[in-house]
Design brief:
21-stranded parallel sheet, 51 strands, 0% helix, elongated
Length: 508
């Protein structure tokens, strides 16, 4: 790493030090403008134009220790008390800066710490009190920053090869920053409005980022890789339209994709991928339309897919995937719904699992959790205040279990568990719970293999409880009416029970 010590004289008018065929063209119109130019190297060219009052421009190409060769610096300022500084070393670096307004500040440096060259930095500011900074190290990096408005801040730092970045801000008091460490990374930030915040870091290779915010007080953060573990081939897209939305995405490892779109106010979306494990090729998508919705997704492993969509207000969706080839789909429409999907745990993963949760209404709660292989949970809720819960292979080995819970009405409760028993893997069990009406209760517990439990309820206040221990047991409960009660206990093999209840207040 290079160490540079520069000593420049401060002058009240243009001062030019020319060596080895350097060229400089300074044009100033107004009062109390100051230009400093120092060129050390070969065939350098610096053009500075200032119009207004008390503007200051500094251009440094090379130093006494390290030359700048074929570098270009162009700085144009129109207004009052603007400041533009630029310095580069090494080969064929280019800096272009333009400021129109009052009290703006632009600074750019290239190859002061590392060898390289061929970097391009361009900054355009129109308005008052804007600040723009670019730092580039190594070779063939490109950075562009444009700010229109007042009090905006843009910062870009690039280290590596063939990185590209672009920041565009239109409004007031917006802040955007991009840091790229690696090769072939691309990042773009667009902010329109006031007091928006965009932050991006790319560590690794071939990462792509897009952040687009329109409104006020929005925050978007993307972290691809870290100083400890790279991200390779990662993709992040964050789009926010509204006010005070928050989007966070963080991934490491290979080919992970995070997509977040928010339309409304005060929504929160978070995605984390492979922060605790090796792997990659995970996909997480979050769509929020409304206000105050919360979506969280965490993926560890490979080839997992999570899709969360929310329409309405104050809905909450959480998906955690640990393992490989899992799919989680959560769709919420209404207000105050809660959906939780857990695939795999701290000690045991889920492989090939599927969770599908659909909620339409208000105040519904859906919980699904499984481990092991190829388990499936489907939960559908249409109405208000319904509760559905299902767990599979949390305590025992097994897999291939299926749970379906369908609720239409209000205040219904459905619970299902599928596990093994006394050396029997919990596998190939099937539970179906269908509820039409209000305040029905359906409970199914299966401990063993190849058990089937079906509960159908149409009415109000019905209760059905099925418990199966062993293998190849079968139960079917059908309740039509109100306040019926059924309890079935099966232990052993090849047991079958069918219960049909109609009317009011029957019992079995």
């Amino acid at each position: 790493m290079k160490t540079v010590i520069l000593s420049l004289a401060t002058l009240l008018s243009a001062t030019i030090m020319i060596a080895q065929s350097n060229a400089s063209d300074v044009s100033q119109t107004g009062e109390d403008n100051v230009t400093d130019v120092t060129q050390v190297g070969t065939a350098n060219s610096s053009t500075t134009a200032q119009e207004g009052m008390a503007n200051r421009a500094t251009a440094n190409q090379g130093s006494d220790l390290f030359s700048s060769r074929n570098g270009i610096i162009q700085q144009t300022q129109v207004g009052t008390k603007n400041s533009a500084t630029a310095q580069h070393e090494e080969d064929v670096n280019g800096i272009f800066q333009e400021q129109i307004g009052d009290g703006n500040s632009a600074a750019a440096t290239q190859n002061l710490d590392f060898t390289g060259g061929g970097n391009s930095a361009d900054q355009v500011q129109e308005g008052n009190g804007n600040t723009a900074t670019i730092s580039q190290e190594a070779s063939l990096n490109t950075a562009f920053q444009e700010q229109i408005g007042d009090g905006n801040t843009a910062t870009t730092a690039q280290q590596g090869l063939f990185n590209t970045s672009g920041i565009s801000q239109n409004g007031a008091f917006n802040t955007a920053s991009i840091a790229q460490v690696g090769d072939f990374n691309a990042a773009q930030q667009v902010q329109v409005g006031e007091a928006n915040l965009a932050n991006a870091e790319q560590w690794g290779t071939d990462n792509i980022l897009t952040q687009d915010q329109d409104g006020g007080g929005n925050s978007a953060t993307s972290l691809q890789g870290s100083s400890s573990f790279d991200s390779r081939g990662g993709r992040v897209q964050q789009i926010q339209i509204g006010d005070e939305n928050t989007a966070f995405a963080n991934h490491e490892e290979d080919n992970n994709t995070a997509r977040q779109e928010q339309l409304g106010d005060a929504n929160s979306a978070s995605i984390m991928q492979n922060l605790g494990s090796f792997g990659g090729d995970n996909l997480a998508t979050q769509l929020q339309i409304g206000n105050g919705n919360i979506a969280d997704a965490s993926q560890n492993g490979s080839n997992n897919a999570s899709d969360q969509s929310q329409s309405g207000d104050e809905n909450s969706a959480s998906a955690t995937q640990s393992g490989d080839n899992n799919t989680a789909i959560q769709s919420q429409s209404g207000m105050g719904n809660v959906a939780t999907a857990l695939q795999g745990g701290f000690f045991f993963t889920s492989r090939g699992g599927t969770i599908d949760q659909f909620q339409l209404g208000e105040g519904n709660t859906a919980f699904a959790r499984h481990e092991e292989d190829n388990n499936t949970i489907i939960q559908t809720q249409l109405g208000n205040g319904n509760s559905a819960a299902a767990t599979q292979n949390v305590l025992t080995f097994g897999g291939e279990n299926s749970t379906q819970q369908f609720q239409v009405g209000n205040g219904n409760v459905a619970e299902a568990t599928q596990e093994g028993d006394l050396g029997i893997f919990g596998e190939n069990n099937s539970t179906t719970q269908i509820q039409f009406g209000d305040e029905n209760l359906a409970t199914s517990s299966q401990n063993g293999a190849r058990n089937i439990s079906t509960i159908f309820q149409a009415g109000n206040g019905n209760i059905a409880n099925n418990t199966q221990t062993g293998t190849d047991n079968f139960t079917l409960v059908s309740q039509s009416g109100d306040l019926n009660n059924s309890v079935i206990l099966q232990a052993g093999t090849n047991n079958a029970a069918i219960v049909t209840q109609t009317g009011v207040g029957g019992g079995e």
